Amino acid sequence: MAQVCEFCGKKPRKASTYKKIRSKYNPTNAYFQKPNLKKVKLLNGKKIKICTSCWKKMKKELLKVKK
Ligand SMILES: [Zn+2]
Predict the structure, then answer these.
(1) Which of 1, 21, 41, 54 could be a cystine partner for 7, CB 3.0 to 4.6 Å?
(2) Residues 13, 33: contact at Cβ < 8 Å?
(3) Which is it for strands 24-33 and 47-51: parallel, antiparallel or unpaired?
(4) 38 alpha carbon to ligand 1 midpoint, in Å?
(5) Are the C-beta atoms of residues 62 and 16 closer than 8 Å to each other?
(6) Which secondary-structure segment (H or E) carries 53?
(7) Cβ atoms within 10 Å, residue 27
(8) Tell me: the pLDDT tens digits for 2-58?
């Protein structure tokens, strides 16, 4: 299971921490920043993985439809 948002295609991206060594800031630990994924069941019964920022947008539109 890849950690990719099925709505916007957000992927894990590389990032690094900076540490002060010998009076200079140096990149030290490289790591991956993962998207905040959430499993969501759609109205037609299909289950997809989407990031929470997409979920927020979806929620807003669903509320608009209900009103
Ligand atoms: Zn997304």
Answers:
(1) 54
(2) yes
(3) unpaired
(4) 10
(5) no
(6) helix 52-66
(7) 10
(8) 899 988 989 999 999 999 988 999 888 899 999 999 998 887 888 999 999 999 998
Q: What is the pTM of this model?
A: 0.64
Give 10 Cα–ligand 1 centroid separation in angstroms: 6
Query: Where are the strands (E) in the chain, listed by range?
Result: 13-21, 24-33, 37-41, 47-51
Here the tokens at position 32 are 């991956």
Tally the residues of the chain.
67
CA Rg value for the chain: 18
Cα 56 to its chain centre, rounded Å, is 12
Centroid of ligand 1 to alpha carbon of 23 (angstroms): 40
